[in-house]
């Protein structure tokens, strides 16, 4: 039922005000990983990066994780959305090291990337660095700092960041350079799908469009726009229709 609604981002506002924000300290600095469908289609394996504060079990219920292929799923770390961009960069490096190990130990010569929301920060970096076969990005942003400053769910992080001395999104994103999605497009695969909500209040559509515009200069991505839907309903719709 939710996937048929045109909420114009209203549910984003509700979710931002009512969703739990208590975070286990261990979850803040570390990620969880689960390998699903270990023996299915190893040549079509996916590496999946979940949305912010979304558990693997929740993602399964929402349909965000592929059911027909081997998938390495990464949950968190929650602190990837961080008041300190240096910490964000360090947490990305942890994931990069782990994936490098997975690629070598599992002999994943070919793999796809499926990433959501803040997970697209990791997804673009990994797809670009390790030559993914396919990239699917759902509600991505071009730069982390910009999305933190403009998103209704990240205003607390923004205010904390300003207190830490990172006064503008430009300062924040300069520190993240060259890890932001828009800086990781030169080695992306030809096969790219991008899904955005036209009324997203968490990652504003203008930031998604900046990323799309940059990619379209060198690739021809497939763009799917969920009309009149916000961030939450865009994720729900993709999960409902996901046939991977």
Description:
The structure is a single chain. The protein has 244 residues and is an alpha/beta fold. The chain has one domain: Alpha/Beta hydrolase fold, catalytic domain (Rossmann fold, 3-Layer(aba) Sandwich). The protein has a seven-stranded mixed sheet, sandwiched between helices. Helix 4 runs parallel beside helix 8 and helix 6 packs antiparallel against helix 8. The protein is globular and about 45 Å long. The two termini are 21 Å apart. The mean pLDDT is 92.
List the helices and strands and how they pair.
Elements: H1 10-18, H2 25-29, E1 32-36, E2 46-49, H3 56-62, E3 71-75, H4 85-105, E4 112-116, H5 119-129, E5 134-138, H6 144-150, H7 155-163, H8 169-176, E6 191-197, H9 205-215, E7 222-226, H10 231-241
Parallel strand pairs: 2-3, 2-4, 4-5, 5-6, 6-7
Antiparallel strand pairs: 1-3
Helix pairs in contact: 4-8, 6-8
